[in-house]
Amino acid sequence: MNNYKRQFFKLITLSFVSTVFLPFKILYSATKKIINQNLSNEQKNIMFNEGTERPYSSPLNHEKRTGFFHCANCGAKLFSSKAKFDSGTGWPSFTESLPGAFKTKIDYSLGMKRIEYHCAKCGVHHGHVFPNGLTKKRFCNNGLCLIFIPDNN
Ligand SMILES: [Zn+2]
């Protein structure tokens, strides 16, 4: 009998939690808009469902030219190549973003607390920002969410 009670309370708690948080989730996803109509399904999955591309899959891992990284959905300028570094994690990594490029949100998925960031202009998910060393941050960005435009273009 106790077991049933426990199940019952679990169900009540779960439905309460989802009722309270669902509107936030809907509100959050409502701020994201498809601007680039040519996004692939993989890009959409990362940008709109907070997916993650396979590590070491992005050609931007090896991008070393000077220029700027833009949002693949809305074109907003997000990172300077000066902030890019090789983190060895398999995703394009940056020590800092351009001012005002992103907004952040605490993400508890995968059973841990991480800071998720999304494009301040169009709202799509880009990656997570982690502490790195004493003062530096590491923006771990999905390459599929970025478009690189070299300076002399
Ligand atoms: Zn954007």
User: Which CATH class applies here?
Assistant: Mainly Beta
**How many domains is the backbone divided into?**
1
Order of helices and strands: HHEEEEEEEEE
Overall pLDDT level: 89
Q: Can you summarize the main beta sheet?
A: 6 strands, antiparallel
Roughly how many Å apart are the termini? Answer: 71 Å
The secondary-structure class comes to alpha+beta
**How many helices?**
2
Rg, please? 18 Å
Number of strands: 9
The CATH architecture classification is Beta Complex
Shape: elongated
Oligomeric category:
single chain
Sheet with the most strands: spatial strand order: 3-4-8-7-6-5
Task: List cofactors, ions and other ligands.
Answer: zinc ion
* Residues in helices, as a percent range: 10-25%
Low-confidence stretches: none
Here the CATH topology equals: Metal Binding Protein, Guanine Nucleotide Exchange Factor, Chain A
Describe this structure in words.
- The chain is of the alpha+beta class.
- The protein has one domain: Metal Binding Protein, Guanine Nucleotide Exchange Factor, Chain A (Beta Complex).
- 25% of the residues lie in helices and 29% in strands.
- The protein is built from 2 helices and 9 strands, in the order ααβββββββββ.
- The chain has helices spanning 2-30, 41-49, and strands at 67-71, 77-80, 84-85, 93-94, 102-107, 114-119, 125-132, 136-141, 146-150.
- A 6-stranded antiparallel β-sheet has the order 3-4-8-7-6-5.
- The radius of gyration is 18 Å and the shape is elongated.
- Zinc ion binds at residues 71, 73-74, 76, 119, 121-122, 124.
